[in-house]
Design brief:
Elements: H1 3-15, H2 18-25, H3 29-43, E1 48-49, E2 56-57, H4 59-85, E3 91-98, H5 106-116, E4 120-127, H6 129-137, E5 143-148, E6 156-170, E7 181-183, H7 184-187, E8 191-194, H8 200-209, E9 215-219, H9 223-231, E10 237-240, E11 248-253, E12 258-266, H10 273-283
Parallel strand pairs: 3-4, 3-5, 7-11, 8-9
Antiparallel strand pairs: 1-2, 5-12, 6-10, 6-11, 6-12
Length: 295
């Protein structure tokens, strides 16, 4: 029994086609068929049912499939372990970050990582949190700095950098200037300034509002513009408390929405040695008690 036979078998089952499996493993279709036939002869049973329009797995094949996958995962794990122990951290790490985040200097961390591992290619893209989360889940990104409300997004592990209340930030002359707090019901009567849907701050506000819709008069893609609009007296800006320099922060109550900023990565790998090394380095920048899980 050879590992390539197990790889071809898993590929055929997952693709339900010898042709697509051959394209996936970059081998001619007759070669895939021949190797699986050899595997079946060695085991003494058919693993695949080839009688229909699509290839399906037999009962014996269904029993073998999880074992084949486990064997392939073990081999991949062994390869990664050898690479790490030999200090051969290399490859590509794909990183994402929310737009205009001032709390964490991610470029500085990436610079430190590059100095430690110059053989690793790093890519960086900015997007809103919803897009970053989707890219982490589907594997397009290895690691990202995201904002979110409530529990950690499904399928991701996080290390929280900030967990702050949302406030209504106003300039001198605003009717709320000098107030300590405002109930959400009263907030919904005002025309607000906020980040767009898909961002962590907007998600926290929308979650607090429930079925009600806040009146967003001005929408800006980055916090500096939201702050500038509020400073010009155009209304309350919905911001995290740490973003309100130059404005008066009014606490929102009943309920009190909160937003989180966090490093995030897929809970389930496989993570490359390079990605794991970056996760470890960046996780050291956050308080250890805020970790939801570790790589």
């Amino acid at each position: 029994m050879e590992l390539r036979q197990l790889e071809y078998f898993v590929a055929v089952v997952e693709e339900a086609s010898f042709t697509r499996a051959a394209e996936r493993v970059h081998v001619a279709q007759p070669g895939v068929s021949a190797q699986i036939r050899r595997l079946e002869r060695e085991l003494g049973h058919d693993l695949l049912d080839r009688s229909g329009r699509t290839v399906t797995v037999t009962d014996v094949g269904a029993a073998v499939l999880p074992l084949a996958r486990a064997a392939l995962r073990s081999v991949e794990s062994a390869k990664r372990t050898v690479e790490e122990m030999a200090g051969l951290v290399r490859g590509v790490v794909r990183v994402g970050m929310v737009v205009s985040c001032g709390i964490m200097d991610l470029p500085e961390l990436l610079s430190s990582f590059h100095a430690l591992h110059p053989g690793v290619e790093i890519t960086l893209a900015e997007a809103n949190s919803d897009a970053l989360i989707s890219s982490l889940v589907d594997g397009s990104l290895d690691f990202a700095l995201i904002g979110y409300a409530g529990d950690a997004p499904a399928g991701l592990s996080v290390r929280v950098l900030a967990d702050e209340p949302l406030v209504a930030a106003v300039a001198p002359g605003d009717p709320w200037y000098g107030r300590e707090s405002v109930p959400l019901d009263e907030l919904l009567e005002r025309r607000l300034i906020c980040l767009p849907p898909g961002t962590g701050l907007r998600g926290a506000l929308d979650e607090a509002c429930g079925a009600r819709r806040p009146r967003i008069a001005f929408e800006a893609s980055a916090p500096p513009m939201v702050i500038t609009l509020a400073q010009r007296g155009l209304g309350p800006a919905i911001l995290a408390l740490s973003m309100t320099e130059g404005l008066h922060a009014v606490r929102i109550t009943h309920p009190s929405p909160r937003g989180r900023l966090a490093f995030a990565w897929r809970t389930e790998g496989p993570h490359s040695p390079a990605a794991r090394a970056l996760i470890r380095l960046c996780s050291m920048a956050a308080p250890s008690e805020t970790a939801a899980s570790s790589p």
